[in-house]
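Reading a protein record of the kind used here takes only a little practice. Think of the row as the fold of the chain written in a discrete alphabet. With that in mind, consider the following protein and its fold in token form:
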Amino acid sequence: MLSELVGALVGLGAVGLVYVSAAARVVKQYERGIVFRFGRLLGPARLPGFTVIVPFVDRLQKVNMQIVTLPIPAQEGITRDNVTVRVDAVVYFKVIDPANAVIQVEDYRFAVSQMAQTSLRSIIGKSDLDDLLSNREKLNQGLELMIDSPAVGWGVQIDRVEIKDVSLPDTMKRSMARQAEADRERRARVINADAELQASKKLAEAAGVMSQQPAALQLRLLQTVVAVAAEKNSTLVLPFPVELLRFLERAQGATGQDGAHSALDAPEQPVSDTSEQPAESPSAPADGTAPQLSEAAAEESSATPVHGLAQVPLGEGASTPSGEAPPELWAEPTTEDVPPAPAPASATRDE
């Protein structure tokens, strides 16, 4: 009898232990428990700690209340200014109503992920490339509102949305690099021009001061020579004053003008009287051939010496290179060849 009672107590204890182990649940601090009894929601969510349900009747589902980091896969789209980009982002959200997160949506993580991808593509199509690159804060706020609107009914709150990276085509990257380089070069030229303007003003002031004291320019020249010689150079360059070149140029111009005035002031040369002209030579025929002389005139001209020259032969045996007889050359006559001068006629004729 006693043994049967002990056995019954042991059996009841075992059954009670099994029941307690099946009914006892522990909800963690960052979780909430949703109890379903015969498939229906039972009361509010169970708080963290130890809780008991009816075994084989109730079902406890735990919901994580921590902030979830959900990366959005890269989405490729075309911006409003027709540029193809690839954008990826990340969403931070948490469950604020565990009952709705379990009841209203099948899988709230997957639902938030799909909504984030759709909203991101929509934002890409409504924005310009410059906004994606420089005005991301505004785009993040717009994307957060687009995702948070349907997520509120799911018991989910979107904490934050961030655009991580914007991938551009290589051609667009090169174009933007050239644009940035051109802009920087433009600013560098503007700065350089401004510096040149300021330097020119200072140089003009310095020139005005040096013009009052000519010795200041010579002292400045000597300072430049000292600065060049301090670097141990083997060649020393001395500047040549430009004023000296201008002085020489003015002096040369003045000399040329004096010569021109002296040539203009010279007396005019008398023109020789051409009234007494020698008899014109026989005109040449119209056909351009040499004029023909008569035989008597030809003999007379050959026999008469011209301008006191006599015709003498070269000598016997002389010949020209062509083998013909050498022509007679004119030579100065000797005293023997010159005929005596006639006696002067008497002033009076004999009666």
Notes: The chain is about 45% helix and 20% strand.
